[in-house]
Amino acid sequence: MSDFHQNGNITTLHNLRARSANDLEHELSVFAESRKISLILPCLYSELEGEAMPHILSQLSKVSYLHRIIIGLDAADQAQFRHAKRFFEGLNQNHIVIWNDSPRMRALGARLQAMGLGPIEQGKGKNVWASIGYLIGCADSAVMAIHDCDILTYDKEMLARLVYPVANPNFSYQVAKGYYPRIGGGNLNGRVTRLLVSPLLIALKRVIGDRDYIEYLRSFRYPLSGEFAMRTAILPDLRMPSDWGLEIGVLSEAWRNLAPKAVCQVDISDAYDHKHQTLSSDEANAGLNRMSTDICKAIFRKLAADGTVFTPNVFRTLKATYYRCALDILEAHYNDAKMNGLSIDRHTEERSIELFAENIMRAGQVFLENPHETPFIPTWNRVHSADPAFISDMRVAAKADEEEFV
225: helix, coil or strand? Predict the structure, then answer.
């Protein structure tokens, strides 16, 4: 059974096993009569060919309280888009597949680039941002949820628990972040959260002192989860990172725009497993190597924006402090896994820590050389100000793609 611990920074909503999923879903259906709930699924075409997505669809088809599902499809050609449309026909809800690589969408991207507002790079951040723009244009939903499309252990109760805190009109939460244990295949997973983010935040506190932002991030049990829900009123002013810092970036935006009492985290699963990224130690722009660097940069940028002064000496000290903290935390996770009959490859884990320590320095160097780097996609309010017809034109383009490629 889950605990009921609260640390006072943000609210943690636990699963105390005292209420059935059916009861929760029934109440959501009541809320949805006056507060429509939409789901965004950012996916690669390759995920349609995996084992997770068919099961996710079978679960979603049973969800009665969803008003709309928006599927943002990346890395697909015309034939694959046609297949994706057939693939998602099993959904019982109003849904649309947005072909992000269509000629119409590329033309809209060029239009943004001409105004200096185009996303810097392709990826999940751009996909989520575009899907949010489409949802804003629909102007009919009060709640938005997002989750990944590679969840091997997916159950529709995950979605119900994720959206409940922001769908309930009697709650004041604007953002809900999902958390869960990362276990699967007899292993304790979640290396980047366990071995990078947690010890890095401890090391930052020791090196630069107490910061409210650090304590805020440390409050999240799984800050890198791809599952979160929001009330749609905050979406037009949300700045989305275009790199691997998406999840940290969204939490940072919630910190910038909202009071801590408007943010919560919610226990959505007892066991969560999905596709695992490779370490890619020899490729700086791939796998966990790239991810860890982008996450570090996202944290450093936010701290600098709040007044923290970084120097080469600070980053050198931070690297050494992180390394010691990470080894200590590895020992704790090893013992936790052992007690629960799970495995941890200590050699691989220590190799990961060594890589992450180097990437703290690399991220610090990139930050110092280019402190004004802003890998954020412009907010939809800014896009609308520069081109009031853009959101409407994007909806028209998505609809035209749907109708043309039947």
Answer: coil
Query: 223-249, pLDDT tens digit by residue?
Result: 999 999 999 999 999 998 877 788 999
Strand partners, 18: none
How far from the centroid of its chain's Cα atoms is residue 189's Cα?
17
Give yes or no for a contact between 330 and 193, defined as CB atoms under 8 angstroms apart: no
Asked if residue 273 lies in contact with residue 50, where contact means CB atoms within 8 angstroms, the answer is no
Average pLDDT over residues 119-135: 92
Buried b (16+ CB within 10 A) or exposed e, 48-67: bebebbeebbebbeebebbb
Contacts of 104 (CB under 8 A, 6+ apart): 397, 398, 400, 401
Segment (H or E) for 200: helix 198-208
Q: How many CB atoms within 10 Å of residue 71?
A: 23
The DSSP secondary-structure symbol of 144 reads: E
Give per-residue pLDDT as tens, 245-289: 889 999 999 999 999 999 999 999 998 887 766 766 666 566 788
- Give residue 41's identity as a one-letter amino acid code: L
Average pLDDT over residues 50-73: 97
Tell me the mean pLDDT in the region 147-164.
Answer: 96
Length of the chain: 406
pTM score: 0.94
The amino acid at 328: D
Q: Please report which helix (H) or strand (E) contains residue 21, including its range.
A: helix 21-32
